[in-house]
Amino acid sequence: MADEPLVADLLVDRLRAWGVPRLFGYSGDGINPFMGALRRAGDPVFVQARHEENAALMAVAHAKYTGEVGVVTSTQGPGAVHLLGGLYDAKLDHTPVVAIVGQQQRSVLGSEYQQEIDLQTLFKDVAAQFVQTVQTPDQAAMVVDRAFRTALSTRSPCVVIVPHDVQQLPAPDGPAHEHGVMPTAVEWRRPRVVPREEDLRAAADVLASGERVALLVGQGCREAGDEVRAVAERLGAGVTTSLLGKPWWDESLPTSCGVMGHLGTHASGWLMGRCDTLLVVGSNDPWSEYYPAPGQARAVQVDIDGRHLGNRYPVEVGLTGDAAETLAALLPLLPDRSSGSPWRSEVEAAVRRSRQLAADRADLPADPVNPELAVRSLNPHLPADALVAVDVGSVTYWYARHLALPPGVPAHLSSTLATMGSSVPYGIAAKLACPDRPVVALSGDGAMQMVGINELVTLARMWPDWADPRFALLVLHNRDLAEVSWEQREMETEPRFDASQSLPDFPYAGYAELLGLGSVRVDRPEDLDAAWAQALAADRPFVIEAVVDADVPLLPPFPAGRDKLEDFRAGLRAEGADGEHALLLLDRQTEQEEGVAR
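Above: the chain's sequence. Below: its structure in token form.
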């Protein structure tokens, strides 16, 4: 019996057949047979996180950095529940992930047994495309194969539930050829999806009709950078990106307006407010109030998923297709304005103003350090082969507005779900996928206290095995849930609620030292450059604890930001003396914005 392959071994063999190099998770009795099979096989590698949610985030990050399917595993009950945060991150950012989840023995299901949860119901929303329980050995390979094919086809999380007793059953000798048993194969190939010629011409007619064309570029342009640039140059267009699209577009170009939306740039707000034609490529960005006003611009959209067409803006022509191939087919149908136009000159001027405004914002004196400067100061030190992981909160704003990613440097974050604490798990997965490349992670102190501190333990455990140990983590330490504090003022005209927003003090640099990592605490702006240089030359992972000012406003780009000013001020005035410094900084930023707007 000991030498007889089990269903658990079949599961591992199937993962290997699908080319899975590693999977993330946390063990438990519900998946002990699966753990045993992983031990016996030695491949794929099992990566132990400190919490199942972090393991799921690592699986999502693996998929985002590599383009492969991320795999996570957990036991039933609480372990399964903990997976949901990471799996929803995959669902909302359209990322292929497969979860293999244990379950109690079939004979006790329905008895209110220990850790018994109806997992089909638990996962039916997050894994709406595919969630199945393996009931017999003959079913196991088919369910795993369908999970992988569905994850790849729909770019979504899929869940395979395997009861403990099924994992222990003998694996089938081979594929059966009988009624009631489904044959299966490890096979999936990316399709070629291109719109019809008449639809391309209709799109070209809309784009040709405009004089002030704008492009909104999302993560669907991951492999279409050259085609997007060719179309933008041919149309003389300005280009803005979604948060997920930022790494896939060259923001150094003179017509690159930066990230769109509430956390976006001055130039992006200007572009969306002035364009008369909009081409959306591979983006489903939810900031609908930052799109052109309805009726302002005629619009065309390109997306591989036809369900997204017209989902954020009333488009006239929606093209279902691969971004690169669709744009390549569209290009020769477009008018050639590459020699220059008044609109292009206006866009370039707006971009110059926006970049100067960002620099001025970062130079604004703060107490003790301006968080915008803490992120911006990374630019001259960021290696050309780095991998960047970004957390949720105010640090996302500073990343979007200030970090200049060299071409080929990916940056990922939990964008649509916006779950706090993703940066360290993301960074670990990035490092495991590309161990010869340095990782830079950006986090706030709220995210660190929620999740990041725990995964520093994982980082400390792993790094001695890395040939290149560089892993630089910036922690913005302001003892405040800054983004929510500013949202309370902006959206509710409410003062900051100290009981909900104040964070306990924590020595991030000192904790890193206890774990055997490198660290430095920075409380003077003039020390930031040296800190980044030290972190990226260190012989081990390195934490920069930057003590920053929580009162630096999260002011949206104008004109939308102008409309929010009185709400901000009402909330700050309600704080009395505690809001005076933030109100002063808000007034300074407003002066900067108004100066650029003129």
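The chain is about 40% helix and 15% strand.
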